[in-house]
Amino acid sequence: MSALSFTLLAACPKSGARRGRIRTPHAVIETPVFMPVGTQATVKTLSPDELIAIGAHIILSNTYHLHLRPGEDIVQEAGGLHKFMNWPRAVLTDSGGFQVFSLSPLRKISEEGVEFRSHISGEKRFLSPEKSIQVQNALGADIIMAFDECSPYPADREYVRLSLERTARWAKRSQSAHRRPDEQALFGIIQGGMDLDLRKQAALQLADMDFPGYAIGGLSVGEPKPLMHEVLAATTQWMPQDRPRYLMGVGAPDDLFEGVMRGVDMFDCVLPTRIARNGTVFTSRGKLVVRNAAYARDYGPLDENCACYVCKNYSRAYIRHLIKADETFGIRLTSYHNVAFLVKLMEDIRMSIENGTFLVLRKAFYNAYGYNDDTTSYPV
What we know:
Elements: E1 5-11, E2 18-24, E3 27-31, E4 33-36, H1 48-54, E5 58-61, H2 63-68, H3 72-77, H4 81-84, E6 90-93, H5 97-103, E7 107-109, E8 114-117, E9 124-127, H6 129-139, E10 143-145, H7 157-177, E11 185-190, H8 196-208, E12 213-216, H9 225-236, E13 245-247, H10 253-261, E14 266-269, H11 271-276, E15 280-281, E16 288-289, H12 309-313, H13 316-324, H14 328-355, H15 358-369, H16 373-376
Parallel strand pairs: 4-14, 5-6, 6-10, 10-11, 11-12, 12-13, 13-14
Antiparallel strand pairs: 1-2, 2-3, 7-8, 8-9, 15-16
């Protein structure tokens, strides 16, 4: 039995938007899908029951962080991530590569892998394709990622070329190290920086390796959004049509629309819970900073067009009070709403692809959301 199957159900004839379905050992995942991030085997402040009520069918956990603490051996002894965190649906783990490069200023890259210092203890550690896959096999996620090197932005073209070629070699080593292919689907990661020719080269190289799914890495790393969208469109055209496509680390509402329009099926991002902890929420009319004084006597919901648990039961005034008083329940409510907002947005997007109204939904959402000049320049 295959660890993953993907069925393409519908497509938007005027864009690259796709409607699909992924099956894994723990869940059926309707795509396009947003995956909440549970870095430390928990989506910050939210329980598994709450995530199920919201409608999440897959969440992401982080290989680097779980390797350092508590250690994959403890997770494996507990029965794997699903049992360890009491999450019955699908889990995706990343390779740990991005965190090695972003969290450890003292690192040494070689053909074998990356030597780095733990951001927790400062001790020297080493992560290679084989070690990354070994850790992910022990964690037991439904979908795991090949070890890769994420090029910074901006970066010299020759550096990016050498980096993506090393990533391709690491991808082959990741495949060879994978010990649970019948239970865990291993995705390759396409790099190449902002160079369209290098992106094509990377996409075709990985396609030849016949992964069950493909991720697009190295975007949303500081480049202007129009450039990100250009590179994304150039990359997806070279990716296999019959495999799921995952854009890593992207989750702003406009980026979800733009990614879907360019043929992406899967997204993840810490954004909804990160901004929630600062008292900021998504609404159908744009972001709202509920901690602001303007909402001290506002007894309406966070979003009058939202039917989530928070919007049906709590006012802006109450949530503002909790946040100003440093009560954890306040950021639990903003986190719940933000994750629910993006999960529901993806549900609406899936329905619009099915009924042929994706571009209509996209334009209506942008108009209501009140984007500024930087975003209204996107084609509508």
